[in-house]
Amino acid sequence: MGEGEQQVSAVRDGKGPLGPDSSHDESFRVPVTVRGYETDTQGHLNQSVYLQYAEHARWSLLSAAGIEQAEMVAGGVGPVVLEQTVSYRRELRAGDEVTVSCCFEWDVPGSGKLFRLYQAIRTADGALAADITSLGGVMDLARRRLVPDPGATLRGLATDPAPLGLA
């Protein structure tokens, strides 16, 4: 691999919740190394890059489930983020090794079309650097509307629904 490239690997060991009172599974994790050009004038990771790391981990999870972007587009659907909240907990600096986890919650009360996604960015020693909560759905690309039961839609596209929590 060239400089700055990062090999993606999913680690499934069930380690840790997002925070002290959370029971969210962090068994799907993607390693990332903080790169110098991602830092700001304070010398720490720029706030927008946390969302890029989260996006990278989400697509890695879909890929681990056997769902590729081209297949989704060919199937006329695509994931959408409707809302995101980031809580920054610890500074990250160039060279820091982190993991980004993903955990779906499919039963969002009263929606039928939405899911929640919980993500944690942790340092090599396991400290929580940031947690990200997203509200999302799966969009019908022709109708430009959310599909009912996004879990069923993604399960239908997956060759391995386990990373999605849909096994």
Automatic annotation (TrEMBL):
It holds the Pfam family 4HBT_2. It comes from the Bacteria. Transmembrane segments: none annotated. InterPro entries: 4-hydroxybenzoyl-CoA_TE, HotDog_dom_sf. One of its GO terms (molecular function) is fatty acyl-CoA hydrolase activity. Residues 1-29 are annotated as: Disordered. PANTHER family: 4-HYDROXYBENZOYL-COA THIOESTERASE FAMILY MEMBER, LONG-CHAIN ACYL-COA THIOESTERASE FADM. This is Thioesterase. It comes from Streptomyces cacaoi.
